[in-house]
Amino acid sequence: MYVKFEYTEDDLVNACERFLSRSKTVRSARVKGVVYSVVTMAIIIGCAAVGVGYGAAVVGAAAGLFVLAYQQLNYRDSLRGRLRKHIREQHGQFGTDVCEVELTPVGVCVRQCRMQVTYEWEVVEEMTASADSVDIYTRHGGGVIVRARAFEDAGEMSRFMDTAAGYIELSRASAAPDDGIAEGRRVGGVLKHG
User: Fold this and answer.
1) How far apart are CA 37 and CA 152, in angstroms?
2) pLDDT, tens digit, for every residue of 12-49?
3) pLDDT at res. 76
4) Angle at 165 between CA 164 and CA 166, to 5 degrees
C-alpha cells in the first residue's frame, strides 16, 4: 500500500518531539535538569539565609520556585525552538516537501528529502493511530509519522493500519524464537519489546 503527503517544518518539529518523548535518555536529562535547578536554588537560598536573614531566604525561595515553574512551563516552546533551529541547520530554509510511505512485505519504506529508508517489520516496536496521524515506531528510535492528510478518508487510514498490522504479525510469526522478538508483549495489537 502506498501513500504520500506534503509536510512542513512544523510537521518535522512535531515528529521530532514525538520521537524524543519516547526516549528514556531525554526524559532522564529533563529530570536531571530539574534536580540540578532545585539543588542550585537550595544552595543559593541557604547562603542567603545565613548572611541576610530568613525573610530574604523566603523571598529567594519564592523567586526560585517561580523560575523553576517558568522553566518547566516553557520547556516545550524552548524545545520546539531548538528543533526548528536544528532543522534549518540541516535543511536550510524549509518550505514543504513530500513524504512517500509504502508498506511492503519487507518493511515500511519511507522516501523523503531525496533519501529512502526501509524499516523492516521485525524492528517495528509500536504502531499507534490518532486523529492526525498513524505513528510507526521502531526499536532503535526511528520510524515514521504518516499524517492523516495522506489518506483519502478514515477507511483508507484503517486499511493502511490493517495492512501494516498484518505484515507485523507475519514477521513475528516467522521470526526465530531466539532473536528476542518472541519475548515481546502485546500493546495495541503490536508486540512491544522492553
Assistant:
1) 48
2) 888 888 888 887 887 788 788 877 877 777 777 777 66
3) 82
4) 90
The domain limits of the chain are: 2-8+96-192, 24-88
Please report which residue ranges of 22-118 form alpha helices under DSSP H.
24-51, 54-73, 75-91
CB of 18 closer than 8 Å to CB of 135: yes
Which residue type occupies 64?
G
- Residue labelled with grid coordinates 523567586: 63
72/190 Cα distance (integer angstroms): 33
**What's CA 37's distance to the chain center, in Å?**
25
φ, ψ (nearest 5 deg) of residue 138:
-105, 165
Asked whether the predicted pLDDT for residue 180 surpasses 60, the reply is no
Nearest 5°: phi and psi at 180? 90, -15
Q: Which fold has domain 2-8+96-192?
A: PH-domain like (2.30.29)
Residue type, 179: D
Q: Which residues contact 97 (CB under 8 A, 6 or more apart)?
A: 6, 7, 112, 113
